[in-house]
Amino acid sequence: MTRRVLAALCALMVALVAVSPAMGDVDIKGLEKELRCITCNTPLDISNAPSALDMKEYIREKAAAGWTKDQIKDALVAQFGREVLATPPKEGFDLVAWLVPAIAVAAGLAAIPFLTRVWARRGGARPAPAGADASDEERERLQRELDDLEI
């Protein structure tokens, strides 16, 4: 019984030690993915431009000083403008950038049943084109050629 209690306490201590540093720290790589380089307009995590390196250093300094992810992001937006964000915020007029694609996809999916019905009606039984009736001579010739091909 004491071994079980001791094992449970050890597991709890390991879990607390593993979780506690992640709670206060800023996910620097995640934050760099959410920001863009002001020089080359590529995601900050893959850019090696001098301005990107300066921004990465700024992020590390502020994270070490105890700033939160939102504080760092807000400071960079205040300094460089909203163009520094990789994706537009989900508020105000920028919400349109998030809603329009979703509405377009929903409209496309809703249109599929209607379009398939229209296409199915168009492709119904059609009369044979003029001149499609073959003579007996032409049918015999076709049969001979098919027999020669052994089909």
The averaged pLDDT comes out at 80
Straight-line N-to-C gap: 82 Å
CATH topology of the domain at 21-84: Helicase, Ruva Protein, domain 3
Strand content: under 5%
Tell the overall outline.
elongated
Provide the low-confidence segments as ranges.
18-24
With helices defined by DSSP (H or I, 4 residues minimum), what is the helix count? Answer: 6
Task: Quickly give the structural class.
Answer: mainly alpha
Work out the helicity level.
55-70%
Give me the Rg, rounded. 34 Å
Spell out the CATH superfamily of the domain at 21-84. Answer: Cytochrome C biogenesis protein
- The SSE order reads HHHHHH
For the biggest sheet, the summary is:
none
Work out the number of β strands. Answer: 0
* CATH top-level class of the domain at 21-84: Mainly Alpha
Question: Which CATH architecture of the domain at 21-84?
Answer: Orthogonal Bundle
Q: What would your notes on this structure say?
A:
- This protein is mostly helical and 151 residues long.
- Among the domains are: 64 residues, Cytochrome C biogenesis protein (Helicase, Ruva Protein, domain 3), CATH 1.10.8.640; 26 residues.
- The protein is elongated, with a radius of gyration of 34 Å.
